[in-house]
Design brief:
The protein is built from 9 helices and 15 strands. The chain has about 260 residues and is of the alpha+beta class. The protein has a domain of about 180 residues. The longest helix has 20 residues. It is globular and about 60 Å long. The relative contact order is 0.16.
Length: about 260
């Protein structure tokens, strides 16, 4: 986990982890927080083991997450945003279970099944476990990309792919890239069913949010990320992991919907 301010969100996340049934160790990088985050981790009031480090200045999130997962000493790595809250106590066990299958490389709670040739997600193929209305099937579903809000994979595989690609810069692109790096090694990406809440936006860096033109800047960053991603994985794009029958059925449904009179 990488944290940057917003201590109220970090506290809520920590509280939600209390009920987790699977034993775990928490590894955190405080990415230059200026609130009471440092004091919170120095006096950490929770029962699970903690390793934490601090960046004196606010660094790109991808760099901070790479530093964080390397603090872990466990067989599996779970990347978790501090603006999430776990509703289902067995969330971690459910993420770990599919990894017993050697064909599975990474699991998560939010994923996308189809990417266009230009690397963009096709929104209607998103499946997730968000508490307000999960869409992923109870048995889980294969996806092309696991969203970085929650990602779980073997440490050995994370080391093999070299961690997150810091060439993407600020934040965008780390989940696309890691998921496709896993797929390059013949492993699948699976989204599992375990309800969670995502507050959103707490991982962004100060220098980005402080820009008066941050919305336009964000768009420029996203474009640059897509260009880098496509350059690396052009041979795998477009990508669609849906079964052929499902693709045809959804295409027909969409066509009929367009023809339906208002």
């Amino acid at each position: 986990m990488s944290v940057f301010g917003r201590l109220e969100l970090t506290r809520a996340c920590m509280e939600s982890l209390r009920a987790t049934t699977e034993p775990f160790r928490l590894a955190v990088v405080d990415n230059g927080s200026t609130d009471d985050t440092r004091q919170f981790f120095e006096r950490f009031p929770y029962p699970y083991p903690l390793r934490w480090a601090r960046n004196d200045t606010n660094q790109p999130v991808i760099q901070a997450l790479n530093r964080a997962w390397k603090l872990a000493e466990t067989e599996f790595i779970c990347i978790l945003h501090n603006d999430t809250e776990m509703v289902e106590p067995t969330w971690l066990a459910r993420l770990l279970a599919p990894l017993a299958d050697p064909t599975v490389g990474i699991t998560g709670l939010y994923g996308i099944k189809r990417l266009r040739r230009d690397g963009r997600f096709v929104g209607r193929t998103i499946v997730h476990s968000l508490a307000e209305g999960p869409t992923v099937r109870p048995e889980g579903e294969e996806v092309a990309v696991i969203d970085s809000v929650v990602m779980c994979l073997p440490r050995r595989l994370m080391e093999e792919v070299g961690g997150f690609d810091e060439g993407y810069g600020f934040y965008h692109g780390l989940d696309r890239d890691l998921s496709f790096a896993v797929r390059e090694r013949g492993r699948r990406c699976l989204t599992v069913r375990a309800a969670f809440v995502h507050r959103g936006g707490a991982t962004r860096t100060r220098e980005f949010r402080a820009r008066p033109d941050h919305e336009r800047g964000d768009l420029d960053l996203r474009r640059a990320v897509l260009q880098r991603f496509v350059a690396k994985y052009r041979h795998r794009l477009p990508c669609d992991v849906r079964p052929v029958r499902q693709r045809i059925g959804e295409w027909i449904d969409a066509k009929l919907l367009r023809r339906r009179p208002p």
